[in-house]
Amino acid sequence: MRLPALRSTPALQPTELSAVTQRAVLELLREGESPNTQASYRSALRYWAAWYGLRYGRQIALPLPAACVLQFIVDHAQRSAEQGLVSELPAEIDQALVAAGYKGKAGVLALNTLVHRVAVLSKAHQARELKNPCQDPQVRELLSRTRKAYARRGALPRKKAALTRDPLEALLATCDDSLRGRRDRALLLFAWASGGRRRSEVARADLAHLHRLGPGEYVYTLAYSKTNQAGLDRPENHKPVVGRAAQALEAWLQASGITAGAIFRRIRKGGHLGEALSPAAVRDIVQARCALAGIEGEFSAHSLRSGFVTEAGRQNVPLGETMALTGHHSLATVLGYFRATATTSANVLRLLA
Q1: Which stretches of the chain drop beneath a pLDDT of 50?
Q2: Which fold has domain 165-343?
Q3: Burial per residue of 104-139, b for 16 or more beta-carbon CB atoms within 10 angstroms, e otherwise
Q4: Local structure of 7: helix, strand or coil
Q5: Which of 51, 76, 150, 222 is least buried, going by the fewest C-beta atoms within 10 A?
Q6: What is the CATH number of domain 28-152?
Q7: Residue 273: beta bridge partners?
Q8: In 10 A of CB 341, how many CB atoms?
């Protein structure tokens, strides 16, 4: 069949991308990336630009030389010296970065933050098809040795405390029957009991994905998550919400009058509902309830996820069942969530009992 010639649509060159196509490619790439990832990349690149401007007295421009990345690492990583642990970032520059809001506090970066910022710079070079200084053998060797040096010193990453069942009950006890109390109770139980939902998953929770099976029984379909960014239809996408979690959710929906859209929303003055909660707001709710309950420790929204896994380990729930709810595909990853309180109660430690 012969196709007609087009009058208004010009033919494209197969070896080149038009400006419109290039923009469309970038927009699709951006949309397919999680908001949290986008925010972390922007933050890392802003920090690189600020550090570079202060360190070299000029505006950053890619590609960077490997020497610049090596300088970044020794500026932000601690090493053992005769006078103790030291780094090379001048105090004046450090203070300027803090004052301008690029750093939260003076001092070296956490090792994970340092590695992440180097990885983001690497990705920026890859995306522009530029020579990548982060792949330089000296840079890779220095990062590898830096990780080992931190490990030898016992400088392990600090994990947020886990909200296992007992501290969770203390948080729930602070939730009264006001609209805010009902929302927070439903949110905490939904996030914890459905497998330890991430704060972004709680913030995105929508009534369109909540299905009632019967009295006190719901199933929430998690169509998109960190471990399923392609939105594949999998059996583990369906998270049961039953028992107390279902009752709290039902009480919140009835009190709020929500019939469509976001499940968890801001509550404005006068009890008026606002927009959907942000992931940061989910974290703030967890921390506020911890403060009200008088629970000491470093908690975050992720404490609900680690608490669920830890409690499952304490109660000897098979790992397969736990992973089906959490959505983990890697056994090594889910084992990383176990806290010492779970491992000390493991059956394997009772072999002589």
Answers
A1: none
A2: hpI Integrase; Chain A (1.10.443)
A3: eeeebbebebbbbbbebbbebbeeeeeebbbebeeb
A4: coil
A5: 150
A6: 1.10.150.130
A7: 267
A8: 13
- The CA angle 86-158-147, to the nearest 5 degrees, is 50
Structure tokens at 87: 């780094």
36 phi, psi to nearest 5 deg: -65, -40
Q: Quick one: which H or E segment has residue 125?
A: helix 111-127
Residue 341's nearest CA partner among 298, 301, 312 is 312
Cα torsion angle, 147, 148, 154, 160, sign: positive
Q: Which residues belong to CATH 1.10.443.10 in the chain?
A: 165-343
Peptide bond into 279 cis (omega under 30): no
For 117, the 3-state DSSP assignment is helix
124-160 confidence digits (pLDDT tens): 898 888 999 999 999 999 999 999 998 888 776 666 7
| Single-letter residue type at 181 | G
Tokens describing residue 69: 């990345």
User: Residue 276 in contact with residue 261, Cβ under 8 Å?
Assistant: yes
